[in-house]
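Sequence in, structure out. Go.
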Amino acid sequence: MITELACGAAALVLYLNTLDADFCYDDSRAIKTNQDLLPETPWRNVFYDDFWGTLLTHSGSHKSYRPLCTLSFRLNYALAGLEPWGYHLVNVCLHGIVTGLFTTMCRPLLGGGPWSLVAGLLFAAHPVHTEAVAGVVGRADVGAGLFFLLSLLCYSHHCALRWRGPRSGRAWLWLLGSVGAAAGAMLWKEQGVTVLGVSAVYDLFIFHRFQLPQLYRKNAPLLISLSLLAGSGVGLLAARVYWMGNKPPNFSNSDNPAADSPHLLTRTLTFLHLPAANFWLLLCPDRLSFDWSMDALPLLRTFADWRNFQSLAFYAGLLFLVWYGLRGSPIVEKREANGKSHVTNGKSLTNGHCHHLHTDLGSPGEPGPTKNGTQNGTAKVHHNAPWDSLPPTGNLLMFFLALLTLPFLPATNLLFYVGFVVAERVLYIPSMGFCMLVTVGLRSLYVAVRSRRHRTLLLCSTVGLVLLYGAKTALRNRDWQSEETLYRSGIRVNPAKAWGNLGNVLKNQGKMAEAEGAYRNALHFRGNMADMLYNLGLLLQENDRFSEALRYYKLAIASRPTLASAYLNTGIILTSQGDVEEAKRTFLTCSQIPDENLKDPHAHKSSVTSCLYNLGKLLHEQGQQEVPLSKAPSPHTAPWAPVMAAHCSHRVMG
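Output:
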């Protein structure tokens, strides 16, 4: 318990400097403008809308169904309104709880000694978690991680009770609890449902100690458990697909450029490289960014791209670890068997550290046989329950690899397209498997080396790694203090998006000249961004530079013909310049744009309504009161009001 509390406390301390942070990036749309958080909105709407407050069945919804996370935001709003510190406090506390549960799960896998502490501290301090913890919308990932671990711990209890007696009702209640927690994890974020697959791997490789050379005889309780896991997974996924209208979401090409590429080779090489790129963020989290869309990760177009070697190295290493895990670890086992060791209850104690000598436990549904005595110098082994000994290194590798890869699988773009190429907060749950892999590697090195000096050096390196991760996390948290610091930190990774969003911040601060420079920098890197073209036009219009503004509005419309706010402000400028007929045509065109496949249909409808109002006003002034309109204007819409378009700050499926 002390180890768990220490790791949880470390997680809390590392993120204390986020409590005074502001809302940043996606927080605005998910919280500040989300109608589902308001008290006057029926709470039932949360279960029919996506994460951003758009109806799930609407064509513009990106289908991110996370009602438990949205309900937690609504509770925050009810308690403290839009005060950011309350939202950040909940995120930090959740991360501390998840870290404590993660350390609890590590104890039976890595032992109760220092190694579970190392794994817990690595998870608490890993810099890739900053987006999930310091960014309020990252609560979806942290909450999913909490229920993910609860589901896994429930399943481990199910396995233990099932071993004692397959007919035990309590065992199947724990399985029901595991499935319920998996459903909860999915309602926090989509990838949470993958815990069912991780649980199956746990049953096979951790509880049953499965290895490739051995063949188990028929085991009905195991087959029943695995079948129930598979059936539950299929049922939960089917229910989610049905609830979102049986339609996949639509994404813009800037969110996922590879998916929009017409070349099969480009799509294949890029998508195969994405897991390697994400793994590198776990291994060396030095180059982090709030957004990886657009050209932040350039497409791989040819075999000559050097990043293909990085992909090959990643998959070669992954396949080697899988082979090693399935075949066992004969070199390490031989070293442990021939070293100075003794075994108690299946645990090999070598120089004060606990390691498992693999033996055949027979059918886990029955108590294993007891063997006493020593043959040919072999240590005495007592076969008791599977949890009486630490799993072999090979079996641990298989489970840790499953924990690393299965939760990340939905984000790979290998099964279906998603609205991003890299998203750091998606790595929150997979990082659990990474931290365990690093820890078991350090433990194996500690066992392999004999020199006290080398072991001391290894321990010092481990402490140094934890401190380095912690320092990087504390520094990265400062980037998330405000939108300005966040966007400035992202310029080296995604200059187009970072400069564009920074321009919005500077404009709100009244720094018009700097904002204009930021917009032009963004367009220098990516000249067809409709939102940036519109925002630059709006800035110029507000500074009475109407001719320039009109030019950028027309460029924005050419880039995105459905950008209603650009039509609205174009019509306003044309009217002020006396070109009434062209203004009327512009307003009419805007009024006929449907709201299908749009990220923010509410803002679109507001702009369309304003266009209709202004068109009606022009017709009234010309004495054309009887001209029919397709829609009635809203009496609450102010005439001639410029409408701010989306600031290009939203990333889907993040």
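Check: Residues 591 and 608 are 5 Å apart (CA to CA). The first strand starts at residue 341 and ends at 344.
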